[in-house]
Design goal:
The complex is a heterodimer of chains A (about 100) and B (about 450).
Chain A lengths: L5 H20 L6 H11 L3 H10 L4 H39 L1
Helix pairs in contact in A: 2-4, 3-4
Chain B lengths: L1 H28 L5 H19 L8 H21 L5 H25 L6 H29 L11 H20 L5 H19 L7 H22 L3 H24 L4 H6 L21 H9 L3 E6 L1 H6 L2 H13 L3 E6 L9 H9 L6 E3 H4 L8 E5 L8 H4 L18 E6 L19 E5 L2 H13 L2
Parallel strand pairs in B: 1-2, 1-4, 2-3, 4-5, 5-6
The chains are: A mainly alpha (about 100), B alpha/beta (about 450).
């Protein structure tokens, strides 16, 4: 795997922080809840990290905590997706009615 | 060797694609027209990233991993599909807490593994672990409060001092870890302290402030995920976590601003402690029956509807849309006026109205609609209270003084649908209800709107 040297990681951090700010800055209030939910889904990527941690765990404690981590992370990702999609589906229908 | 290199390349390409899809997805979610497709983009990114992680080098425990994904995924899927739209805020809190817990778990596994991580990585693991733990237990308390499992706001003297002491103790343990003392009991104590801190921080916060708090924990989870991404050298986690961290921080500020509170004020002062201000509200509330109220609306030129949490509780949004259509058929202009913090989350009302089929071009933000109250014949207030309380403009001693409100009191007539005579969420008497041009229509939101519909139909 590629190694992220300290500064490369810091650059990523900085650029991603600006990206997040810019993406949200012009959002109308009506989308605040779905967007909070959507960003909640996006940090469900933590499931990937939990999988890697569990995959490399070698002690019983590591197995247990890693298992919980993957379970919680999967819950974050799946739950976040389901509720966001349900909310946004409604905007879709009202949008189509209008046009 | 060759096979390993190409697998690594494939993994990197997949994470790169996932990061791109997340950002594009969020971007699309920021406009109503493209929003519904946005989550699908982000979802695709998640599937790609999760699937490719199974090919990660030197992995074992595949059965355990698959089982955990299956159990967590199915439980979340099932609860997410079943939950009512009104209960969305606490579900977001719940899923967000799970993410925080997962970030804390990564940190715990890495710290407990006994591998030499070095001071920089240990620092990041500790930070991510602390933030993730606070976000986990704090979000769970927020969930329990909004779900009604936990009704009391627990406050005691010196609360902030106690929280500060817990934070300091956890920080000291963290510094010891970075300094190279990786004893198991130090790691365990640090996580326990952080979990306790999340609980004690969130317990005193009242339900009205919960949206801000959930949004804050959402941002914190993002940050924790980014830190764990540094620990694991995983660019997708760094990017997704950081984007959510900064976007969530901005969203939290927007919400706090809409409530005219600073974030510090939300976190460190129990709301509702202060008295209801010095203004004595004089006069009496005047009741109206549904027939008279229906007539007022049916012969109006312009009706502005102000929905609040009461509409959500009563599940009245479908009836409200039916009423709206009825009025529009009679040639009445109907518009919805949404306060930024109406309901339990910004945009909560918009989601509910969208669910009922109300087109979003007749739904207006506070700034757009406020001038229109001056020439509105009727302002119909359904289950909203503090967001239309004129003392926010006039009474400098009121706890809600300075909060931007909807100018419902400027409309020629106000009809307020309300269950009883009690005060609002903040515990403050609402001067609007006592004005000469205000009429109270008592009853459950759904039942009262149904009566209005009947009244207008029978004209």
């Amino acid at each position: 795997m590629i190694e992220l040297s300290g500064f490369a990681a810091l650059y990523i951090f900085m650029l991603a922080a600006f990206t997040g700010y810019e993406v949200i800055a012009k959002v109308p209030a009506i989308l605040h809840t779905p967007l909070m939910s959507g960003s909640n889904f996006v940090h469900g990527i933590v499931v990937v990290g939990a999988m890697i941690a569990l995959g490399h765990a070698e002690t019983p404690a590591g197995y247990v905590i890693g298992f919980l981590g993957v379970l919680l992370g999967a819950g974050n990702a799946v739950g976040g997706y389901v509720v966001t999609e349900r909310m946004l589906e409604m905007f879709k229908t009202s949008g189509e009615k209008k046009s | 060797m060759n096979g390993l290199v190409s697998t690594s390349l494939l993994i990197e390409i997949s994470y790169y694609a996932a990061a791109f899809l997340f950002i594009m997805g969020l971007k699309r979610m920021s406009s109503p027209v493209t929003a519904a497709s946005g989550i699908k983009w982000a979802g695709l990114g998640m599937v790609v990233a999760t699937a490719i992680t199974f090919l990660y080098p030197d992995m074992h425990n595949y059965v355990l991993t698959t089982a955990a994904i299956f159990v967590g995924g199915v439980l979340a899927w099932w609860t997410g599909k079943r939950v009512a739209m009104t209960d969305m805020p606490q579900m977001i809190a719940l899923y967000n807490g799970m993410g925080g817990g997962a970030a804390a778990a990564i940190s715990a596994v890495e710290l407990l593994s006994g591998r030499e991580l070095g001071p920089v990585v240990t620092t990041l693991a500790v930070l991510g672990g602390l933030i993730g733990s606070v976000s986990f237990s704090g979000s769970m308390v927020a969930f329990a409060k909004l779900q009604g499992l936990l009704r009391k706001d627990v406050r005691f003297r010196g609360q902030n001092f106690v929280n500060l002491a817990i934070l300091a103790a956890a920080a000291v343990l963290g510094v010891m870890l970075v300094a190279g003392n990786g004893a198991t009991n130090i790691i365990t104590s640090m996580f326990l302290l952080a979990l306790v801190l999340g609980v004690t921080m969130t317990l005193p916060i009242g339900g009205a402030d919960m949206p801000v708090v959930i949004s804050l924990y959402n941002a914190l989870t993002g940050l924790a995920v980014a830190f764990e991404g540094f620990v694991l050298d995983n660019a997708a986690m760094i990017i997704a976590g950081t984007v959510v961290g900064s976007a969530g921080t901005l969203l939290t500020q927007l919400m706090a601003k809409a409530m005219n509170r600073s974030l510090g004020n939300v976190l460190f002062s129990g709301f509702g402690d202060s008295s209801g201000g010095s203004t004595e509200v004089t006069g009496a509330m005047k009741a109206v029956d549904a027939n008279d109220a229906g007539i007022m609306m049916a012969f109006a030129e312009k009706v502005l509807i102000v929905p609040g949490y009461g509409m959500a509780v009563a599940q009245a949004q479908h009836k409200v849309w039916e009423l709206t259509q009825l009025l529009r058929d009679r040639g009445v202009t109907v518009k919805f006026a949404i306060h930024p913090v109406a309901g339990r989350m910004p945009g909560h009302m918009n989601v509910l109205l969208a669910e009922a089929g109300v087109p979003y071009d007749i739904i207006y933000d506070q700034d757009e609609i406020n001038p229109e109250f001056d020439n509105a014949d009727v302002a119909l207030i359904i289950g909203a209270n503090d967001v239309v309380n004129p003392v926010a403009r006039t009474d400098t001693t009121s706890p809600i003084y300075g909060m931007p409100i909807l100018n419902a009191d400027k409309a020629r007539n106000c009809i307020v649908i309300k269950r009883g005579q009690g005060a609002g969420f903040s515990g403050i008497q609402n001067a609007l209800f006592f004005l000469d041009n205000t009429r109270m229509l008592y009853g459950d939101g759904q039942a009262a709107v149904s009566e209005l519909i009947q009244a207008i139909k029978s004209l």
